[in-house]
Amino acid sequence: MLVINLSVGTEKRGHLSVDEPTINLGLEGIYFTKSEVCKLDGINGRLYYRGYPIETLSKNSNFEEVCYLLLYGKLPNEEEFNIFASALKSESELPEQVISIIKDMSNKAHPMDTLRTAVSALSAYDNDVPDSSIDANMRKSVRLIAKTCSIVATIGRFRNGESYIRSKPNLSFAGNFLYMLNGSRQSQQNEKILDIMLMLHAEHSSNASTFSTLVAGATLSDIHAAVTSGIATLKGPLHGGADEAALAMMRAIGRPDNTEEYIESALEGKKRIMGFGHRVYKTYDPRARIIKVYLESMQDSSSEEVRNLTSIALRAEKLMVDKLGKTKGIWPNVDFFSGPVYTALGIPGYLFTPLFAVSRMPGWCAHMIEYWKSNRLIRPLEYYSGPIDLEYIPMENRS
Ligand code: CMC
User: Fold this and answer.
1) Is the model's pTM score more than 0.90?
2) Is 133 left (phi over 0), alpha (psi -120 to 50) or beta?
3) Is the CB of 275 under 6 A from ligand 1?
4) For 29-58, what is each residue's pLDDT tens digit?
5) Where are the chain's structural domains?
6) Cys staple from 203: which of 223, 255, 325, 363, with CB 3.0 to 4.6 Å?
């Protein structure tokens, strides 16, 4: 068991003594709970969902099955799978009022803001909101996974000046996302690649957005409130927003021959290269390894733009690994190669992070339901380092 002792500083009038507790900025290296949802081995670059290696799942499974695995803790049999997959399909419809919210916000706000607002609004149309039983939370999770997918596809349609379309019952989850975004069925190869991307992003232990989901839910709010907090947290470029930022960087590099000069000069200017580095992985992110293989396999059949982006990505990766990989433990993460892959699938950059939220929804819900089983309010300490017992000076006497 890990025990953390904080020695308390001695307070004196006007200042605090130097006797400070140990402070782990960003809660780095702190265990705050136990979980059976996910194991992340940052030293060896291994990732497991409910005990299954990510390599095995991405090769053999599909997103619907991974959602079931994360929520129920086991792989479904055929009957369980069929019931679960059809529930995801039947819950994909959006309330009219939520469609109106998306339409109204689409050209004014970042898609992550629209997504956050739309997911939050779903609570008004879910009769299970006041029911905090496990069964009700499972039902709400299925709805959240299904409807978040529809919301993101609809954000894409409205931004393109097109109208909302309903999902098709004969398509997979990934197939439906592409169908609802484009208005026509995409190739089976594209559906499969998106399915793999969804699986790779579905869960990642106590990352920032999952932690913030748990912080919100641990107050005994509800699952809509909790995942809305998760979406808000995912937006930032140090977390989920890195995929959009990495693609923007590749576009700014422009031509493959510019790559080395651009990266060298960014590093000299102490800039961060988006899609590299990780708080826990100090080696190659196993998800990035898998995505890189798919990206390379798609190269020949891709458009000139994607070939160009791929070439830039591979040159940037080589340089970064040579310069910072072995020396500083900064390696590609899941967000680096995603941009060219999503571009090859015809998904615009502004939807990358919202799509990340679609895939992470089962991870957030699985963690939340698990945490509620032995809930404890999350309330860490901060060490006050300012002055105390100051004299109150009336406003007319202040300089
Ligand atoms: N490019 C250049 N230098 C970097 C990078 C990077 N991407 N990441 C870390 N460093 C350097 C950093 O400047 C620092 O150097 P020094 O010791 O000389 O001051 C050192 O590495 C340690 O950095 P840190 O900020 O203490 O590390 P952290 O654990 O707080 O950072 C991170 C983790 C993900 C915030 C960081 O690596 C980063 O900003 N990466 C870019 C954003 C990104 O790709 N985020 C996606 C993370 S994975 C997917 C997800 O969870 O969303």
Assistant:
1) yes
2) beta
3) yes
4) 999 999 999 999 999 999 999 999 999 999
5) 63-237+351-372, 242-344
6) 363
